[in-house]
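Below: protein 1.
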Amino acid sequence: MPDDENLMIAKAKDGDRTALNALVVSHWPYVYRLALAKTGNPDDAQEIAQDAFLRALAALPRYKEMSATFKTYLSRIALNLITDYYRKRGRAPQVVDIDEYNAPIIDTGSRPDEAVISTERRQEVAKLLALLPNEQRQVIELRIIQGVAVADAARIMGKSGAAVKMLQQRALKRLKDLFAENGITGGEAGAG
């Protein structure tokens, strides 16, 4: 895929509208979910995602393959727009349930009472995640929830790989302490 994507980027730089459309189609869901997770508002998320693509495509002639993956490049633009979004509104990010961020995984084998407990646990975990400092929450969202590689998370956050690893370690330790303070044990958190 990276070679195909590099070819699409090269064609898009030359003005190929099909290649531009292919880039948008392949990356839109990711950028939109990122914006939705940060804003909690589908309309604002759509606007941020649209602006991120407009900015990325306008700056495409300056994009260099070796500096970051295109996904990382779009993420950085979207995160900057999200920061501007909150700066303009003068408020803190809305707490978003992790379930709204990720596509739901349906477990048809669980009983209804187990499903309710599982949903409640995920909501508790989302509330605890919101208590983390911004950078710690961001590293958990990128590394744990989205599964972004250390190098990509470092580029998105503007930090070194070592700094991301240390931040992740501190965030996980803080989450563990928060779990203990709130009576959530490893087995119960794992049930969700």
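Below: protein 2.
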Amino acid sequence: MPDLPPMSAPVKRSVTIGGHRTSVSLEDAFWRELREIAKSRDVAAAALIAAIDAARPPEVGLATALRLFVLAEVLKRQG
């Protein structure tokens, strides 16, 4: 049986990207880690989200791009 981490339902938050507001739904663990990554880079979380949004391919949703970014950053730290 897998050892599961604490889980939460996705939480919808509003963010401003390029002057327009949008909503993104992410699990709490991803929101926390995204804020930590932004803090470690000395940027606002909104600025980091905007940069990820600008870099993602159009066929990939913002929430997916954010989750994959967080995963990549966590894996970089581990290895």
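The beta strands are 11-17, 20-26.
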